[in-house]
Amino acid sequence: MPTDVVSSQATLLDSKQLYRICELDQLSTDCQSTAELTPLNDIVGQERAQQAVEFAMGIKEKGYNIYAIGQNGLGKRTMMLRYLSRHKPSDHTLYDWCYVVNFDDTRCPKVLKLAAGTGLEFKKAVEKLMLKLVKAMPLAFDNEMYYARTEKLKSQLAQKQEVALTELTEEAKQKGISLSLTMQGDYQMVALNGEEPHDEASFDALTDTERSQFESNINGLEVKLRGIIRQITEWEEEFSDKQQEHDEQVAKEVLIHFIKPLKDKFKHQPEARTFLTGMQADILDNLDIFLEESEEQLGLAYASLEKKMPRRYQVNVLVAQGTQKFPIVVEESPSYHSLFGYVENATFRGTVFTDFSLIRSGSLHKANGGVLLMDAVKVLERPYVWDGLKRALRSRKLDLSSLEREVSLSGTISLAPEPIPLDVKIILFGDHETYQLLQHYDPDFSELFRVTADFEDVMDRTSTSEAHYARFISSIVHDNNMLHCDRAAIARIIEYSSREAEDQQKLSLHSANIANLLRESNYCAKSSGSQQILVPHVEQALRNQEQRVSRLHDNIMQSFTNGTTLISTQGKVVGQINALSVISTSDHQFGMPNRITATTAFGKGEVMDIEHRVKLGGRIHSKGVLILTAYLASVLGKTAQIPLTTYLTFEQSYSGVDGDSASMAECCAIISAISEQAIRQDIAITGSMNQFGEAQPIGGVNEKIEGFFDVCKIKGRTPEQGVIIPASNMANLMLRKDIVDAVAQGEFHIWAITHVTQAMELLLGKTAGSLPQTATPSQGQYSPESIFGIAQQKLTALRSLVKTD
């Protein structure tokens, strides 16, 4: 708006414009409570986010994971879980995942992929098989047939040994030599003198030829004896092989008897049959596990917290699919181990050991084939989790590697399990700031999380949406087994939602706030013995909420009561105006008036912002002051510099001031100081302005009006009191009932303006003034009775005085 155009008058609002009542037009007149309303399965007003989720769940390619953006309390998780519970994926197969021993390398356990729901069945079947073998195998080697066969082999060996040694003994005897063998395998050869061994004298009496003959015979017999001993060793090895073959044949007969039904049962699962075949061969190679009687030697092999069976042949079921067709896992605390699983250590008689049976699953294992939901900030807070998650999503494999091995410099021996194929959708919940940080600093994020589900804060308020919202309220009531709300209580809660959205045309989608209000209203209703939640119960719950968080508000209001904070709500003062501000705590915000004062002194047309000079003013506040300075220069300084410096401050403000919602109030205070026209103290004003003086919307308009109204009650009410707001804030009005009633009775007023001059006219009681349309800047004169005219005259007189001096 050009500065030389006369502004229209401010609009005085009536009570109907201050609060939009919920009529529930779309509900049947027969519907008198939430008991007659069908609960809403979806979260109301989040169609955009739901479409994004549907798209991501329908596409199978890598990288189409979801980042759900929105503040806490919007029902992101609830909407996701409700949608996913109804989601029926097409062409989707789930599996049970197990780890079993790798018979070739026990350090690298193998993955067993079984049909969904058969993992535990297979585990129990193998356990039964092992328990049977632990009993049956020793029995197969403890019977007369086995002993008879073993004795036969032993007798055959002994017979061969005896024949060979007997023949050598006879040959030695014929040569006059006695051959004797001990049980320890030692031998002795002695020359005979007839039937008796030669003594030293008789042997010396022999001729040299006879003695040489004895020595030659003995040497020859020793050579033959060594050959027989080698032959005996070969016979013993042959016996051992035959015994081993016999044992394996006995064990094989037992194994085939027990394992064949198991193979037949799982014949349609090739991985299970392959494992059973490998297990059968391994048992034959390790029969001592079943036959060894020494408990000390077998303690570690059987060490188990569960059953008395060899650990080597257990089946570790990592994931067993239940009745659900689609795994949905919510991970509340996403640490590295809780996500990716881990390998436990066990202790047996002071020995620490680990094996495949001690591998434990993580959330990614449980969600494999489905969806895993997590909070983004929690994922980023825990060390190594984000990198591990990206690595798993890129490779589409779940590699259960030891975190200790990843971060340690030592080469500690650990397991290296075979990776499990990963097919999972990740849904991260987070706010906009976290999303922007990931987009900016992590190039992998955009590749792996290609779908953004952006949750709305508000939705349009129409008769149809109010009906949907009523069903949403009904769903909360039904889900939590609360007392039902009557029709008026439903309407009051919808009005509260509109107040939360700070817009008559919108409804808040912060479902957590609505759910909390319903819980507290339900408590109030039950406490009063009511059978339904009524409007008084909702009002009581709202009062209770405010009471719990309003300590700071009460303290500030007390300062107005006892006069500690100076404020005037009656009379007129030059250069002093009541502006409105909002104070926010973590869970509450409220409005209060602030006194702004402006004084002038000879200068160069500057506006000295004291808040900025003492570093209590924020950048936005400083911008607002500069904008109003530009406006004042365009109105009063077109032909010559304004020969005044204006000093502007928030009185009794000892903390930071930011925002530009006081710029119109500051402009009016400066005009009052320049023109020396008094400002009404019974009117407060809020609103920012641009360089053309146009009023711009601000936030917290309801709280600001209510804050001034409360101070007026403290200082004394008069029928002329009121608040000036920007016309663009009219749609944001959802005021308290006592203020609406006061306006209806003419005891309080709210004006809506489009230009700062309309506020000046209300506050100063004179027209703002305008320049003739045909006047040039050098000829422009405001009407002498107008506000700008009076200011112009004072400035002209001051300029003349300066020239005279």
From TrEMBL:
Pfam short name (any one): AAA_32
Chain segments annotated as transmembrane: none
Catalysed reaction, written as an equation: Hydrolysis of proteins in presence of ATP
Entry coiled-coil feature ranges: 218-245
Gene3D superfamilies tied to this protein: 1.10.8.60, 3.30.230.10, P-loop containing nucleotide triphosphate hydrolases
A GO term for molecular function: ATP binding
UniProt EC number: 3.4.21.53
Alphabetic keyword roster: ATP-binding, Coiled coil, Hydrolase, Nucleotide-binding, Protease, Serine protease
Active site per UniProt: 661, 704
Domain Lon proteolytic per the UniProt entry, residue ranges: 571-766
Similarity remark: Belongs to the peptidase S16 family.
Annotated protein name in UniProt: endopeptidase La
Organism: Shewanella vaxholmensis
